[in-house]
Amino acid sequence: MGNLCSRDQIPVALPPNLKGKSNIIYNEDELIFSPGIFVKENEGSIYSLYKFDTVLGSGRNGTIRKCIHKPTNDERVVKIISKADLPPDEVITRSVFKEVEILKTVDHPNLPRIYEFFEDDTNFYIVLELLTGGDLFDKIVEQKVFNEAQAAEIMNQILSGLTYLHGKKIIHRDIKPENILLTKKDAFELKIIDFDSATFFSSGYNRGIYGTPLYMAPEIIKGKYTEICDIWSCGIILYILFVGHPPYDGTDDEIFEILKHPKINIEKDCAYISKDAKDLLYKLLEPDPNKRITAKDACMHPWIRSKFHKRVSSIEIKNVVKRMKNFKKTSKIREAIHTFIISKIMDPNQFKVEEKVFNLVDTNCDGIITQNELLDLFKNEMPYEEALMYSEFIMENADSDKNGYIDYTEFLRATIKSKKICTKENLLQAFNFFDENSNGVIEFDELSHGLSDGAVITEKLIREIMNQVDTNGDGCIDIYEFEDLLVDALDSQTDISI
């Protein structure tokens, strides 16, 4: 069953919340360092930086190959899109990089890392993280059916990722088991992938047929739909987890006919599952999109809440909360380096405890932490006034972009032990990222390019940042000055052991 994608819709390349913003940065406080800032188009040859390995998959959207990043020996994947397979206008507009623009805006534990992207005479390339557990489709084939606890754990992660995406005004449009990858084989830890069909949305309806017919919502074939179409796809996945096969099958045309008047007998097909599980299935597979449950409400459904338990010990919570309470904002250049190391260098397995606590504090599963969620955490262990003080203090120090909530990487920056972030190896990799011409120093233009993403940082501001690190005054930053910046920060902190 293939993926369908109409070509008549103009891709939206710019997130709605960035339209109209100033592109000139004058003051250090205006600098915002999200993980997406460090996703750059590499104008060199991809073959000079990567050794291509096994083909992991191929289809209409290109070929996926495992690759080795030569400077670090890290294993990644590269998505290769042949220009010969694209209409000429899409080659000229480079519309395949819409996926890059979307992934640069997201920061969530159930969404993939993106590293960089390339173009040459024959192909476009997007370099992403390698997830080694296989896809959910293969897991379904292997396991056949899932118990309710397993199904709830899977659906909680998919719905949490979608709650976050929909909150960021992103619609995926091709949610299916093949696009849900397991991070490793021995656990149900998932990430939503393949944003080729995804787009930003605003008010009103989306048009054009995108997705895979078997998982496609009925309203898509009618030509007008919203982000709620992703929820129907989740319903089909949950049905398959319980029953072992989809509720219908056939050719694309046959499925389109079924979707005109879909009839799924949940009572008969899923007779053995609990009442709450059936209730969620009915709400996910509601044919009327105006009555269908949202991703956020589905995350909070009693079945998810009762069956999926966030496994984190009290001592793990205590240690992470201690570090969060002691976190203080630092200079912007240190903030940038920490963000880069956490989001692009560190193995996510190194901060699994912090991720679990993030998910615990994020009680409504929208992928961000608000002051009220922090307050709810603290008021169970201290007087209200003290809990309010700590929640305000943490928001002031951890919410570096001042958007009113703590993003995932902001939380990690506030809770991962600094000594774990600033290892010798991590600092060298971070230095090499900024040292674009590999001459052993970070020059003025390299620092400016490394810290910006389309915006223009004034020469005066770059000079001020450079002077914070360039202790010998030679106009550039060497590896020793770079390391001293982070070592000084470590020495000035009171590190709390786990």
TrEMBL record:
Catalyzed reaction equations: L-seryl-[protein] + ATP = O-phospho-L-seryl-[protein] + ADP + H(+); L-threonyl-[protein] + ATP = O-phospho-L-threonyl-[protein] + ADP + H(+)
Entry EC no(s): 2.7.11.1
Lineage per the UniProt record: Eukaryota, Sar, Alveolata, Ciliophora, Postciliodesmatophora
Domain Protein kinase: 50-304
Claim: Cell membrane is one of the keywords in the record: no
Cofactor(s) recorded in Swiss-Prot or TrEMBL: Mg(2+)
Coiled-coil intervals: none
Domain of life: Eukaryota
Record's protein name: non-specific serine/threonine protein kinase
Assembly mode: Monomer.
Keywords, in A-Z order: ATP-binding, Calcium, Kinase, Metal-binding, Nucleotide-binding, Repeat, Serine/threonine-protein kinase, Transferase
Domain (EF-hand) ranges: 349-384, 386-421, 422-456, 457-492
Example GO molecular function: calcium ion binding
Binding residues for ATP: K79
Similarity annotation: Belongs to the protein kinase superfamily. Ser/Thr protein kinase family. CDPK subfamily.
